[in-house]
Amino acid sequence: MAEGGSNSAAEPLGMRAVIIGATGAIGQCLLGELLSSKNISKVVSLGRRNATVLAEYSVDQKAEEESGRLEQHVIDFEKLSTETVGEHFKDKDVLFCTLGTTRRAAGSAAAFKHVDFDYVVNCAKVAKEADVPQVSLVTSQGASTSSFFLYLKTKGEVENALKDMQFPHTSIFRPGFLDRGSKQRFVEKMAKLVMTSIPVATVAKALVIDAENYVRSKKSGDSQNTPSSVTYENAEILALLSTN
C-alpha cells in the first residue's frame, strides 16, 4: 500500500497525533497511514485494548513501539478526565477520533449513545484542555440532529458538540457506506450494490492528508486566527486525495 500523507520532498512536519478508536475498521487503517507518513513523529493510541497495525502497511510495529514513536495505552473511558489521560494529549497537533459502535453491538440505544457521543465528547474535552489545535472526527453520510434514525441523529449531535468547543480547526469526515474489503459482511456486500461506498483505507488516507495540510498551513502562516471547520463528504474525501 502506498505511503500515507504528502509525498512532497519538503522537510517532515514532525506532527504528534493522538488516535481514539484504532482497533476499528477505519482506525486500523489510520494507524497504518500515520506510521507510514514521514510527517508523523509520534502516535499515541488510546483505547479499550491495544491495536495491531495491518500487514499491508509494511510497518514494523514492534520497532515503532520500541523506538517510542508509537505508544499504546489501555484506558477506561468511564473514568476519562484530564487527570487520568491528560498527559497523553500534551503537546500534540491533532486528535483523530474514529471511535464508534452500533446499537446492536452496544446492546441498547442508551449504551450506543454513551459510546458514540459521551466517549467522543469527553475525549475532545481533554484534548481541548490540553490545547490540541485540531480535532478530526469520523461520523457518517447523512449525519444530522434532525434525523429520525438514532445512529445518524447521534452522529449529528456529536458533530455539533465538537464544533461548539471551538478548536482552532475541526475536520469532520462523513463517509458513505464503508467498504471493508475482505472483512465485508454478506449484508454489506449486498448493500454495496445499491449504495455509494468508499474504502476504509481511502478515508484513513484522507484523514492524514487533511491534518498534514492544516499543520502545513499553520507553519506557512496561512491558517485563520478564528476557529474554523470543514466537512468532507465522499466526493470531497476523494478530491482531497487527488490533490495530494
Automatic annotation (TrEMBL):
One of its GO terms (cellular component) is cytoplasm. Residues 21-208 form the NAD(P)-binding domain. GO terms for molecular function: catalytic activity. Gene3D superfamilies: NAD(P)-binding Rossmann-like Domain. It holds the Pfam family NAD_binding_10. GO terms for biological process: import into nucleus. Monomer. Forms homodimers during oxidative stress. Interacts (via N-terminus) with elongation factor EEF1A1 (via middle-region); the interaction is direct and competes with EEF1A1 binding to guanyl-nucleotide exchange factor EEF1B2, thereby inhibiting GDP for GTP exchange and reactivation of EEF1A1. Interacts with nuclear transport receptors XPO4, IPO5/RANBP5, IPO7, IPO9 and KPNB1 as well as GCN1L1/GCN1 and LRPPRC probably through their HEAT repeats. Binds NCOA5/CIA. PANTHER family: OXIDOREDUCTASE HTATIP2 (PTHR14097:SF7). This is Protein HTATIP2. It comes from Stylophora pistillata (Smooth cauliflower coral).
